[in-house]
Amino acid sequence: MKITSSVLMANFINWTVSIDCGQQLGVYQGQIISVDGEKQTLTLKNSFRNGMLCDTKDITIKATDIVDICLIADPTNAPEVPKVVKAQRDEAKAKPAPVATNGMSSSKSSCYSSQTTPPANNHIKRCTSQQQHQFRRSRSSKSWSDSGGQDERPPTVSHPSTKTSVIVEQTSSPEKRSTQIDVSDNQDDKHFDFETNLALFDKQAIYAEIESAIGNGENHLHNHSNYHHPSIRQQTQKYRCDQMILGNNDPPVYEQIILPRTTTKVYTTDEGLVIPCLTYDLRQLLFSTAEQFGYTLERQIEAMGSCCMEMCLHLLGGSHRMSLNNSHQRPVVVVLAYFEVQGAYAICCARLLATRNVQVYLYMPDGLQQTSLAYKELQLFKTTQGILTNNVNNLPHAPVDLLLNGLDSTNDQLLFAKIWYRDLVSYSNRLQANIIGIDPPMDGGAIGCKWSLLPVLPLHMSKNVGSLYLCDLGFGRQIFEKCQIQYKSPFTKSFIPLHDKQ
């Protein structure tokens, strides 16, 4: 930039301007006091550099260094910069002025301080032992002009761990004197020292006094009710949010089922109840005793089928999956059944699922006799809209939500020798659907199951049967007592999961 005429520029004397001198020199603000056309210079008073008040009284800027210049205020609106900021001083020592940082390392630091009767020209220079503190003006020249020249400072950034040296220079006195005072930036912040206060408290002595009072039979624990120690024997019992505080507070008994002979294998429920495993002979005795008390096979099949149906609906998505809004995507379930009681369980479950608008495919091989347990259940299934077939090719290939396996049984170990059984094993492997085994044998079967549902009490099952679930058939306690089994029902719903304790 070039100054063409000093006479023309003289019209801008006392104007408040903002001059951009590039990245190296920065931006200057101040009032124009003189313009020299020959030397191509411009002089400012009350000047700021990058928002910070300059230490020198006047600043002279060359025209060649000026990139841009902006007029901020005319002389009538340009206020006078205060020379001294009044600060309250304590009688014992002077408090430092607030410190504000702008993150620039190239600027000098400055602030103002005064005594009760401040001298004419007092300057306070602050220097830290760790780093140079930066002092920044609370606003730019424009905001300073608009606010009427009042000194408004932004929130300060304090450094509590930095010791500061304050040097007060009094230039008005004939003999220049300097006084150095060590202050701390956080002298106004009085924090409570918890660690020091805690060290003054002798906890062991208090604990010893309380325990000795308990040992001597003295009842003055109320004097130390605010102190607790894990070794104190008299502690307040705490209760869970779901625990009955008005009932019996005896510890829970987890072994509520005791067999006449100790078993080597047990399972546990979600609540931690111990479920022992029956032997095959004891299980047969239990079911035959139930029939003697009136729990016929039809009742047992209906209870097992209903429980299996509820588990299937739970795995299919519950009532939301069966709602009217999802009628366009009815779940598909394939049921494989045989002539044994496991097949009757599966057919009963298939019938109950079909009555709840589930698309059911039931496979039953040829040769079913009228005296078989599954015959009556099959006749009931035919009253539904379920699909019955004896051909593997008629079963759906995809997508299938669940597959119920009612083929494998302890009474028939020769199923794998039959061609249709091997075809069903290949079909289940290709289907890649979740498989539920209904009362499978202890070693599992050729069809791998993800879940297995067992009635009343489990047998010693292998790992091939997947996750175990126990079904409640509703047997009364007298049936178990007849078999010399101490029994208390662990069921909170129709089926519960079992976990291997070992």
Automatic annotation (TrEMBL):
GO terms for cellular component: P-body. Residues 158-173 have a biased composition (Polar residues). Pfam families: LSM14 (PF12701), YjeF_N (PF03853). Signal peptide: none annotated. Gene3D superfamilies: 2.30.30.100, YjeF N-terminal domain. PANTHER family: ENHANCER OF MRNA-DECAPPING PROTEIN 3 (PTHR13612:SF0). This is Enhancer of mRNA-decapping protein 3.
